[in-house]
Design goal:
This protein is mainly alpha-helical and 137 residues long. The protein has two domains: 71 residues, Winged helix-like DNA-binding domain superfamily/Winged helix DNA-binding domain (Arc Repressor Mutant, subunit A, Orthogonal Bundle); 43 residues. It contains six helices and two strands, in the order H-H-E-E-H-H-H-H. The chain has a two-stranded antiparallel ribbon with strand order 1-2. Strand 1 and strand 2 form a beta hairpin. The chain starts with a helix and ends in a 13-residue tail after the last helix.
Amino acid sequence: MHGYQLMQAIADRTGGVWKPSPGAIYPTISQLEDEGLVRVEKDAGRKLVSLTDEGRAWIADPANEQTDPFAGHSADENGPDLRGALRDLQAAARVVAVSGTDTQIAAAHKALVDARKSLYLLLAEDSAPATDTTDPI
């Protein structure tokens, strides 16, 4: 696969929860190539990455058995999609920062600080408090 195909395959396998950037993929490919586990060849101006015999042997060796790095990254498997909710929150905060009045920006700041404190309190408690799971918007 080409690097961008690898990025898309990872995004597909994780249900879009993990979308690696070129800055994550290409250094990893270089490291695997340095270790002799993959071969990189030019194909129509793009780098085509494939496993070497040594890479296949490493994967086949039971001593190197790893857990599936994609297991547990799907929102369906883990319950609520916290990363998606965080992206939505960030987008809303950006809109308030750009378009809000000074009063609205101050209220948004307080809401974000309170949300951060609430998240840490969840970890500090023995059991999570009952929360309203309905989305008001």
